[in-house]
């Protein structure tokens, strides 16, 4: 595993505690969610690359951190968390600066629901290990259309969910957890799966707003130290 510093350093350390360490891979949308959230919260972190293309997630060293052998993994002193959803809820509790969940219970639930749809009903259906398996079993064309139909189904559900709540961001004028999960997923959907976002005008508007944020830009794959 390579170790390097993020290209952009954010000013705030995790209070006076140990430095946060993020195991990440530049192309991972799950790790991107965490990078985006850390930047929004102004938390600096050490970037440790796990090269998924070279299979570094399968090393015994990494398996000790996450027996599922996926990135991201966040290490905060003695605390090791290995799922982006759990990581973000942890960060929200431990580092409440720049809240990523609104106080209003309904808006909070919509943020959690959006994050859950992305992390449970969209991304797992096109992830690397599944894609490799499908490419062998059904071939690249069916693999692509499988990914596309699942992404579109998930986006349609979120488009309907957010219709009455979205403004510049998914649930209003502030960037929250829903945006943190949506923006990287939309980027993957357009770049890797050629999804036409004009079918999802609300999501497209939210994505355009996120793209203008420096915290999103510096968390993007091509800005990471391990980008190729
Ligand atoms: N639910 C997990 C999913 C993690 C996940 O699927 N990570 C992908 C990258 S986005 C991965 O490490 N894939 C490695 C593989 O498929 O071998 C999360 O949200 O963190």
From TrEMBL:
Belongs to the GST superfamily. Zeta family. Its EC number is 2.5.1.18. Keywords: Transferase. One of its GO terms (biological process) is toxin catabolic process. SUPFAM superfamilies: GST C-terminal domain-like (SSF47616), Thioredoxin-like (SSF52833). CDD domains: GST_C_Zeta (cd03191), GST_N_Zeta (cd03042). Residues 18-99 form the GST N-terminal domain. It holds the Pfam family GST_N_3. Residues 104-228 form the GST C-terminal domain. It comes from the Eukaryota. It comes from Abeliophyllum distichum. This is glutathione transferase. It catalyses: RX + glutathione = an S-substituted glutathione + a halide anion + H(+). The keyword Transferase applies. GO terms for molecular function: glutathione transferase activity.
